[in-house]
Amino acid sequence: MPHRWLPLVLSLSALLLVGAVLAGWLLGVEVLVRGAPNRAAMVPSTAITFGLLFSGLLIHLQRQPLRGAVLACAAIAAGVALTNSIVIQLGGGGLDVLAETRAPSDRMSPGTIAGLIVAALGLAGLCSARLCRAEVPVLSAMAGLSGIVAVLFVHNFHRGSPLALPFVEAMSIYTALCLLIFFAALLLVALDPSAERQRRARPARS
């Protein structure tokens, strides 16, 4: 069933991309962190957050998923994004100051933060009958997909370009692709008929 194996393949592929980005930061390989010269980089905190989100999705796809582990992945991912939203506003670089080769303009953009928080909410919704009844995973996936597709169509991912949208100016093309993959996988999981039957079987208090 595509509702199961396709999200699995997408998540594993995205984790490979995230791993390559982190390896790029460790080894100082620019093409792995930004794709091309003068493009925005996927900063380490963004890569780590995606690692948590896709790991949570993979855990959820197991035959007997650990709901606590999925919720923990979602909560930590949201926490990293929210922390960056506060620290960056105060003029700091968040966790990314640990990357010695980071350019001053390399940071988690407001658009990235918003996308990661929506993604974390959708992931958490998969483990809550109440949120599922409110269609939170589906709504999160649809909102995320529409937003990131719009960004991919109109945004230039080169830093300082006149065609770069201010809200996502620091967003990497790798970040945009990971958001696209995550929301597509989330939508497939949320629309899985077997998952719907399982949600109906859960106690209402969950």
Tags for this model:
206 residues; mainly alpha; 9 helices; 67% helix; 0% strand; disordered C terminus
**Rg calculated over all Cα atoms:** 17 Å
User: What is the makeup of the main sheet?
Assistant: none
Share in β-strands: under 5%
Would you list the SSEs in sequence order as H and E? HHHHHHHHH
Distance N terminus to C terminus?
27 Å
Q: What's the helical proportion of residues?
A: 55-70%
Mean pLDDT: 82
Describe the global form: globular
Can you put this structure into words, describing what you see?
By secondary structure, this protein is mainly α. The chain has one domain (2-201). 67% of the residues lie in helices and 0% in strands. The protein has nine helices and no strands. The protein has helices at residues 2-27, 30-34, 44-60, 67-89, 110-125, 129-133, 136-154, 173-190, 193-201. α3 runs parallel beside α8 and α5 packs antiparallel against α7 (136-154). The longest helix has 26 residues, at 2-27. The protein is globular and about 45 Å long. The chain crosses the membrane at residues 39-61, 68-88, 108-126, 138-158, 170-191.
Summarize the structure.
This protein has 206 residues and is mostly helical.
Helices and strands, with pairings:
Blueprint: H1 2-27, H2 30-34, H3 44-60, H4 67-89, H5 110-125, H6 129-133, H7 136-154, H8 173-190, H9 193-201
Helix pairs in contact: 1-3, 1-8, 3-4, 3-5, 3-8, 4-5, 5-7, 5-8, 7-8
